[in-house]
Amino acid sequence: MARITRTKVSNTKTAGAKASKIRPKPTAKAPAARASRPRGTRWPKPVPPEAVLEIFQRFAAANPHPRGELLYKNPFTLLIAVVLSAQATDAGVNKATPALFALADTPEKMLALGEDKVRDLVKTIGLYRAKAKNIIGLSRALIERFGSEVPRTREELETLPGVGRKTANVVLNNAFDQPTIAVDTHVFRVSNRIPLAPGKTPEAVEEGLEKIIPDAYKQHAHHWLILHGRYICQARKPQCWRCLIEDLCRWPEKTPDPAP
Predict the structure, then answer these.
(1) Which end is more exposed in the chain, N or C (fewer Cβ atoms within 10 Å of the end residue's Cβ)?
(2) Higher pLDDT residue, 224 or 19?
(3) Domains of the chain, with CATH numbers?
(4) Could you confirm whether 116 is annotated as catalytic?
(5) Residue 86 per-residue DSSP state
(6) What is the pLDDT of residue 37?
(7) What is the b/e burial string over 186-200, where b = at least 16 CB atoms within 10 angstroms of the residue's CB?
């Protein structure tokens, strides 16, 4: 809210009149975290079921066994890597974690390492202080409440410090082969652009994707969408000329080939 500076006015009526004209500047609303819509266009309707099937068939044919790009050794180190990746790049996390995991690849070793040492090892990653604290906290929780094992349900995972729904879904999918869909910024953007399951929140997109993606493709769906968003359907300038589903995508303004 804008700061209002008041000055003394001898005439109380005049003061009241002037004060009544003073209005705090409206707080700017945070933009909806959706793919931006070109001016003068309407959001396209979601692609039909037959197009959804074709989209994932093409993704599967091009990359039958997609994998996440975070480096890890076991479910515990995967959990740590995903916690560290919040508001950070996978590449940045991968530069820091080899040294960390060489010293601590179990909850007991991580707890013994201590918050100060963990903080020093991950200080190249954004929000490293809070993340180091969460890593120690979740390591302690795993030992005390889960027998040092990473739990296999979203509800249990979300009780751990620093673990939200997206992190839980990534761990369940990668470590335990559960067909969960983790909606990060890439999945969110791609789903809204095509559009597959448009929504104003990650939870809404996740729910929509779970409804429309055929069961045969749910295990790898979020990997395909993440990689597609990271390398092809990028935020500022999607590389539509390289897109293998360009003819099925309903995004109203495709980026032309820069080298026709």
Answers:
(1) C
(2) 224
(3) 49-65+181-242 (1.10.1670.10), 75-176 (1.10.340.30)
(4) no
(5) T
(6) 53
(7) bbbbbbbbbbbbbbe
